[in-house]
Design goal:
heterotrimer; A mainly alpha (505); B alpha/beta (330); C mainly alpha (140); B: 330 residues; alpha/beta; 10-stranded mixed sheet; 10 strands; 42% helix; globular; C: 140 residues; mainly alpha; 5 helices; 3% strand
Chain lengths: 505, 330, 140
């Protein structure tokens, strides 16, 4: 192994490779930052770019786009309250309030460093621990996925701390939307009313953009100060290195480490990725923080928890892909196709047959994260200026971007119309103080829970005992109960103290 | 606002005529010059999937054999219904083609109402026939041969879990065919993708995997999955030790075919041109190698051959559905 | 409209819609129907709670300029329709231009450069680079 690593180093540090990394990361950040465009889309659309190149370079390029995009999503999440990719859905919760307090630059720098930490830890895990960890990936069967989904869903309690009833209503909405489409286990169409475009269900991005982008844009547009620069942000200060270091060293670093590891594991589990990691990362940051009450008001740990986890997924998702040929998340699923197009068969023999390509890629991932850190850190000052653009310009642009981003998923205007419909609903939800986060989370995890419960029942022939068999199941159940229990306890403790703030309409 | 007088009218008419000519020039010309513009292929699955990979490999050779590039337009959804409906509505001028997967396209029609029918298309070329493969985990000692599996299923009817890529998928149909041919009952467990089947079998969560050669060859060659039989007429060249089901006494031939079609009504000359080009592409040694490396078993049928093949498949699946239906018809 | 009234309306709307949903879901085979039925029943239960509990609310000052809001909603719907007629790029150009003007941006240089610049960047990214086939005019 070490031999292969040493051989890969000169290739990784070659001029061509480094140029590709900067190009790819830059593109990735841009794609991630635009609401509507996602990492999967970026990688999918840029695969043709890699055709002329040797596979190792092609993979490095795709890997840079991946890491860059997952980080880039936090930029619009922080500055505009709109997640650039689903993997930054939880970053808005503390990122945007920080911007509103003039701390945009600090939030961006926290996000950059947290993403870097997540990415580099997972890249090292990938490089040195891939084969044993791949075995963990295989341990997840239907019952394990069910408990994992429940664990994720229990985060809803935490996300709706202001008003549990409304949070759960939002979750119910998300669960309902998630049930639209062909039932995976019987093939029966549910709530499709004869519309073929709904047979595959509602894409999470359509709901995400609809519930986050459009209402945010409308709120920008409806305000009196629409063509003046937001005042507090005007006074925004650049975050100096000393201040950043203080924040990290004294507040955030445990979150950085914990979230990174959490994200790596989520990535390793096939089928789950950044969109789950962001919520779980945020949740655990809050769980272990010394100041949980500050979450939601603009607290750097919130940003750190979400962003370290979602970049942690990048290296983790590559573990099952490169060792077994099983993608760890949706982006790596596309990379699998990329590998095939380049004539590399993903599977257990990839390491053996093409060690040069694989190791160049894995070592490259380490360097890519460094590149991302550099670009993000020095770019943050520039990015932060976006927050100073008047709403009369940003508002329409966000909507236009949301339209094209939604269209680009499946080249479907139907999706765009659906997204606008959800946008309308999302706006009403805002005015009713119903949080959007639980709806998105429920849309992602509800189907996973239902499908896997039924699949587990099918596999076991109806024996409930199957759900509790094996260590992994029990571990997940314990975690689920813990998160749920603590969430309920916090809720009871807080009692009637919380208040909602609402604009009179 | 028209300036008065004959001069004004003439100018306007001239302008309109000129614009019309420009407009006409951008429209695709008839079969003579075909193709004069890039050709779009509507792919029924998302990027990275086997059908997408096939389309991209074919597109790679389009410049060489057709003189124009091909642009991929992924329109996944509803088990290829979305892409087929879009193709059906496209102008039959040869500039919009689409991928067709059987049994997916057929399965939809059998299982529910669809907005397309098999007669809506002109069949140009089938490239891939990816046979089904029955596989188990390599270290599962219960099933060393296909007969072990059949014995087990006879003794435990409906207990052997068989992973498929969805209700009505080719894997599920293969399982049905297996049941009919062997007289045993298994328990199909639907997953959402081929990768999930691999994970389920490797992880020991199901007994058997309903694979296609394309997505499991690597695993078999790496020794992780034991192939009990392949559901084709002949053995697969890269897996010479895997017997077919027919050899073992069971008439089961089940596969997933991928081809390219056009909307019905495409002029015959253009269809012929495309068919010839696809034939030449399929005979290009570099193309063959690309296909082999991405594990797409080739079985090329052009134009009339494809028509015949489709008729055979329609009959095979319709009969099977009558005998042993899958899924619930709404 | 104060929060209590908003909550009541929401609860009633959700209950009504859920009942429709229940009627639809009843027609599905048992295995497929369980999950949707559970969700809808949960929604009804939550709505009832919402109906009977007092909201904990403080109103926040913030005026909505309805003209801007409704205007933009109308423009956005028009945008959606027009995309299929004159193509994405022209539609976006118009939409951004008209919206900015409507939202009181009057500086001609800004209006022109932002709308044109934005569409040019979009074209470079989606048309040239990513090659996403966006709805387009026959002539363009």
């Amino acid at each position: 192994m070490y031999n292969a690593i040493f051989q890969a180093i000169p290739v990784v540090f070659s001029i061509k490779s480094l140029l590709l990394m900067f190009l790819g990361t830059g593109l990735g950040i841009a794609i991630g930052a635009m609401p509507g465009l996602t990492a999967s889309m970026g990688v999918a659309l840029l695969i043709p770019l890699t055709f002329g190149m040797p596979p190792a370079y092609g993979l490095v390029l795709l890997g840079s786009i991946y890491c860059g995009a997952i980080y880039g999503g936090s930029i619009s999440a922080i500055l505009l309250n709109v997640p650039g990719t689903p993997s930054s859905a939880a970053t808005v919760l503390d990122g945007f309030p920080m911007t509103q307090r003039g701390e945009a630059d600090k939030a961006l720098k926290i996000s950059t460093t947290a993403s870097f930490t997540g990415g580099i830890i997972s890249a090292f895990v990938l490089l040195f621990l891939a084969p044993p960890l791949a075995r963990i990936a295989l341990m997840f069967g239907a019952s394990e996925y069910f408990w994992l989904a429940l664990l994720g869903l229990s985060v809803i309690v935490s996300l709706s701390s202001a008003n549990v009833v409304k949070g759960f209503l939002a979750a119910a909405f998300g669960l309902f939307v998630g049930s639209i489409g062909l039932d995976p286990l019987t093939g029966v169409p549910r709530f499709t009313f004869g519309v073929p475009n709904l047979l595959d269900g509602v894409n999470v991005i359509v709901l995400l953009i609809g519930l986050f982008s459009i209402p945010q844009a409308l709120e920008m547009i409806e305000s009196e100060t629409v063509n003046r620069i937001p005042e507090i942000v005007e006074r925004g200060v650049a975050c100096k290195f000393r201040e950043l270091w203080h924040e990290i060293a004294h507040v955030c670093w445990p979150t950085y480490i914990r979230s990174s590891i959490l994200g790596t594991f989520i990535g390793i589990i096939p089928g789950t990725g950044g969109n789950v990691a962001t919520f779980l990362g945020y949740e655990q940051a809050k769980r272990f923080s010394k100041h949980p009450e500050k979450f939601g008001t603009g607290w750097s740990e919130g940003v750190a928890g979400s962003e370290a986890a979602n970049n942690g997924v990048t290296g983790g998702a590559l573990v099952p892909l490169l060792t077994l040929g099983i993608p760890g998340d949706s982006v790596t699923a596309i990379m699998l196709g990329g590998l095939l197009i380049h004539g590399l068969q993903p599977g257990p023999r990839l390491f053996v047959q093409h060690p040069d390509v694989v190791y160049t890629f894995m070592v490259g991932m380490v360097v890519i994260n460094v590149v991302m850190l550099i670009m993000g850190y020095f770019g943050s000052y520039l990015f932060a200026k976006v927050a100073k653009v008047p709403y009369s310009i940003v508002g329409p642009m966000v909507i236009a971007l949301s339209v094209v981003g939604t269209y680009a998923i499946k080249n479907s205007m139907f999706d765009v119309g659906l997204m606008l419909f959800f946008g309308f609903i999302g706006y009403i939800m805002r005015k009713l103080a119903i949080p959007a986060g639980p709806a998105v989370l429920a849309l992602i995890l509800g189907p996973m829970a239902e499908e896997n419960w039924r699949r587990a029942m099918l596999i076991s022939g109806g024996e409930i005992g199957y759900m509790f068999s094996g260590i992994l199941n029990l571990v997940l159940i314990v975690l689920f109960l813990l998160v749920l229990g603590v969430g309920i306890a916090t809720f009871i403790k807080k009692g009637k103290r919380t208040e909602e703030f609402e604009a009179d309409a | 606002m028209i300036k008065g007088g004959v001069l004004g009218m003439k100018r306007l008419t001239g302008l309109v005529l000129a614009l019309m000519m420009v407009g006409l020039m951008t429209l695709p010309v008839g079969a003579q010059g075909y193709p004069t513009q890039p050709i779009t292929i509507i792919v029924g699955f998302g990027p990275g999937g086997a059908t997408d990979v096939l389309a991209r490999i074919v597109a790679k050779y389009s410049d060489k054999y057709l003189g124009q590039p091909m642009v991929i337009n992924n329109m996944p959804g509803a088990n290829t219904e979305i892409s087929l409906v879009a193709l059906k509505k496209a102008a039959p001028d040869g500039y919009t083609l689409g991928t067709l997967n059987i049994p997916h396209a057929l399965s939809n029609i059998l299982m529910r109402q669809t907005q397309y029918a098999m007669e809506d298309f002109k069949y140009l070329a089938n490239f891939v026939v990816d046979p089904g493969l029955i596989g188990v985990r390599a270290d599962d000692d219960r099933f060393k041969t296909l007969d072990d599996l059949i014995k087990y299923a006879k003794a435990n009817p409906g207990k052997a879990t068989w992973a498929t890529s969805g209700i009505g998928s080719d894997d599920h149909i293969a399982a049905n065919m297996f049941e009919v041919a062997t007289g045993v009952k298994v328990r199909p467990v639907p997953y959402k993708s081929d990768a999930e089947i691999v994970a389920a079998v490797l992880g020991g969560h199901v007994d058997v995997g309903g694979f296609n050669v394309g997505n499991v060859t690597e695993q078999v060659l790496a020794g992780k999955i034991r192939a009990l039989g392949v559901m084709a007429e002949k053995r697969y060249p890269d897996l010479p030790d895997v017997p077919t089901l027919k050899e073992q006494g069971y008439d089961v031939v089940s596969d997933s075919s991928r081809g390219i079609v056009a909307p019905k009504g495409i002029p015959d000359e253009i269809a012929q041109k495309l068919g010839d080009a696809f034939r030449k592409i399929s005979q290009d040694p570099e193309f063959v190698e690309d296909m082999r490396k991405s594990v797409q078993p080739m079985d090329v049928k052009i134009l009339d051959e494809y028509d015949e093949y489709v008729k055979v498949l329609v009959k095979r699946f319709t009969d099977l559905y009558k005998a042993n239906p899958w899924g619930e018809k709404k | 409209m104060d929060m209590a009234k908003k909550n009541r309306i929401t609860a009633i709307v959700v209950i009504v819609l859920s009942i429709f949903g229940l009627m639809e879901a009843k027609s599905y085979p048992a295995e497929a129907a369980t999950y949707p039925l559970a969700i809808l029943l949960m929604a009804i239960a939550l709505s009832v709670i919402l109906l009977v509990t007092k909201p904990r609310v403080k109103t926040k000052p913030g005026n909505i300029v309805y003209r801007q809001l409704y205007g933009m909603i109308a423009f956005t719907i028009a945008y959606y329709i027009i995309i299929r007629i004159i193509g994405y790029y022209f539609a976006t150009l118009l939409y951004v231009l008209v919206s900015m003007y409507f939202l009181k941006e009057r500086n001609l240089i800004v209006l022109a450069s932002v709308s044109v610049g934005f569409v040019v960047v979009l074209y470079c990214v989606f048309g040239l680079f990513l090659r996403v086939p966006l709805p387009h005019l026959v002539l363009f």
